[in-house]
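Deliverable D5.2: sample structural annotation.
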Amino acid sequence: MRQIQKEVLHYPTLKTVLAIEEAIKGSDTPLSRNRILSKLPTKLMRSTLNLALDYMERRGLVLETKSGFIWTFNPSRKLERAELEGMKM
């Protein structure tokens, strides 16, 4: 079976990824894709937003829930140490 690759029309810039990050991080409630688009300072194609959100989700920065995207990244050194020293099951 052949793998069909999607052709990416527009890759997000760092400025775009940071703007999306700030929109999600600054929200107290989960944000839908439409709400994220409305909070951004510039217009953005939906496919570019999806690519950025996929990247952020793979890196553990955001989590998609039924209600929308929430910020999950916690750069705590204590948390990092606990994960390293924790018991594996």
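Annotation notes: The two ends are 37 Å apart (CA to CA). The beta strands are 62-64, 69-71.
The annotation will be released with the project's public dataset once the embargo ends.
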